[in-house]
Amino acid sequence: MSLTPSNTRTPMAAVDRAWLRMDSPENPMMVCSLLVLDRPISVNHLRRTLEERLLRFRQFRQRIVDTGDRAYWQDDPSFDLDNHLHTVALPGKADQAQLQKLVGDLNSTALDFRRPLWQLHYIDNYQGGSALLIRIHHCIADGISLVRVMLSLTDNTPEPVLRKMAVSPNRPAPKRSWLQSTLHRAVDNIQAATYQTQLFIQSVREDPNYPAKLASTAGSVAFDLLKLGLAPFEPETGLRRPLCGRKHVAWAKSLDLDEVKACAKALGGTVNDTLMCTATGALQRHFAAHREAIPECGLRVAVPFNLRPLNQPIEILGNKFGLVLVNLPVEVQDPFMCFRQVQENMNRLKRSYQAQVTYSLLDLFGRGPDALERRALGLLSNKASAVLTNVPGPMEPLYMAGAKVTQPMFWVPQSGSIGIGMSIFSYAGTVQFGITVDKNIHADPDEIMAYFQESFDALSHVALAGRRGAIERKAS
Questions:
Q1: Is the pLDDT of residue 18 over 90?
Q2: Are 221 and 240 members of one domain?
Q3: What distance lies between CA 443 and its chain's CA centroid?
Q4: Which residue among 7, 175, 419, 474 is buried most deeply as judged by most CB within 10 Å?
Q5: Do 51 and 123 lie in a common domain?
Q6: Which pairs count as long-range contacts for 337-340, CB under 8 Å and 24+ apart, including other chains?
Q7: Could you tell me which pathway this protein works in (predicted)?
Q8: Could you tell me if 217 and 242 lie in one domain?
Q9: DSSP conformation class of 278
């Protein structure tokens, strides 16, 4: 792909800048994706795929210029794909443990801020096939967008089709004088105010109760902001320890999505409720195995909540999501009662404005001084023990350069003092579950992966037993 670099600087959005400044030695702000392939692939074909499909997004050819009070995107004048595409081979007959160790080492290594903030490692000699590990800084885009970008590198059939794809344009704002900028902002504000007034008048005409509903919504937003600020810190457990920045990763054997759906249907809930309850059960088993007292108030996890329509094409990157704090009732031992509590907690959050509130806070922090963001981040990260993501993926198998993707995994970064990240990803009739844990936290990631399977089996047993009982009662 032949492109002429530009010296033009494009201002970084405030929310993206907030994620840029969250980067720390303990928690590099990287979204990491792993694609396990059923056979080796051609590195030359992989290179061409990146040129045609990834580099069409300009941010992957741009470095960041940080002036202290502002951050900008600027084309890297010395951009070379070889600085971002690396080939490694696992030794001997490498198993999952060896791949997990390599992924953990790379996930512990920060990106080079002198270059565009992404790296891809092609990993050869893994169980007769290969793997791709892609690390991308969170300031480029949110996890859901980046997962979709990574999946855009794949094909729906084993026969790859590469086409020249349009490059995402860089739209620099025209330079204005101070007076022009001031007048421009004033006109924008007047136009926005006029438009909002017109919408308000139209809404009142259509619904006389609209002002009351608007006031109620504003009150709900304010209440959710207050609840977020007043939420108590997480209890002191072995899951919260000072972090060292070295990551251990693991992933579980995939679940059958049809079995998960059957379990959810029998319990009268959603697939998301079922998987959140399964994660809760895995943490319960961790506490029991370590003979650690289970917090009576449960544990909270920070869950990214997508604010971008899923049917919207990924043409413009950036972060468009908020965070919600979800309570996992680890103190409830009965699987059925635990499921009901998770379901109630999730339904309550669906009616809240917490995601919009946290998105607005990130936008505000990105515009303010670094010290303010660090302080606010410290307060918020003390209100969760882990980050948990649940992203729906493609329902059909995907292929990379002719090789079948047998297992896709991804991990979003943790922030502040949070040292555990759990990810749930549905793909081709399966559910993948993975975890990343800071080395200082006393939790074995492989054990927690085994607990995840045990937890689902216990919940499924209760669900199917209850369904059989209902059928028997109906028959009698």
A1: no
A2: no
A3: 22
A4: 419
A5: yes
A6: 338/277, 338/280, 338/281, 339/267, 339/269, 339/273, 339/274, 339/277, 339/459
A7: Glycerolipid metabolism; triacylglycerol biosynthesis; Lipid metabolism
A8: no
A9: H
Q: Indicate the burial class of 109 (C-beta count within 10 angstroms; 0-12, 13-18, 19 or more).
A: middle
Tell me 60's DSSP state. Answer: G
pLDDT for residue 185 is more than 80: no
* Containing structural domain, residue 379: 236-475
Torsion sign across C-alpha atoms 215, 217, 222, 226: positive
In a domain, 60, yes or no: yes
Task: Provide the whole-model pTM.
Answer: 0.80
Number of folded domains that form the chain: 3
**143-152, 229-238, 421-430 — which one is most confidently predicted on average?**
421-430
Report the candidate in 34, 56, 125, 73 with the shortest Cα–Cα distance to residue 406.
Answer: 34
| pLDDT tens by residue, 100-136 | 999 999 999 999 999 999 999 999 999 999 999 999 9
The answer to whether the Cα torsion of 356, 358, 359, 365 is positive or negative is positive
pLDDT tens-digit readout, 32-41: 999 999 999 9
Query: For residues 149 and 317, is the Cβ–Cβ distance under 8 A?
Result: yes
Tokens of 143: 């996890």
In a domain, 44, yes or no: yes
Nearest to 400 by CA among 30, 82, 43, 58: 43
Distance CA 428, CA 257 (A): 9
> Residue 309's Cα: distance from chain center in Å?
15
H helix and E strand count, the chain: 12, 16
Residue 216 maps to a domain = yes
Q: How far apart are CA 347 and CA 441, in angstroms?
A: 31
Same domain, yes or no: 194 and 296: no
SS3 state of residue 326: strand
* DSSP annotation string for 445-472: HHHHHHHHHHHHHHHHHHHHHHHHHHHH
Q: Which segments of 165-209 does DSSP mark as H helices, in order?
A: 178-206
Looking at the structure, tell me whether residues 377 and 408 fall in a common domain.
Answer: yes
Q: Which residue from 85, 88, 93, 82 is spatially nearest to 105, judged by alpha carbons? A: 88
pLDDT per residue over 214-235, tens digit each?
Answer: 344 444 444 344 444 445 567 7
Tell me the pLDDT tens digit for each residue of 303-362: 877 666 656 666 677 777 677 788 899 999 999 999 999 999 888 877 666 556 655 655
pLDDT at 5 over 80: no
CA–CA dist 415, 418 (Å, integer): 6
Distance CA 409, CA 411 (A): 7
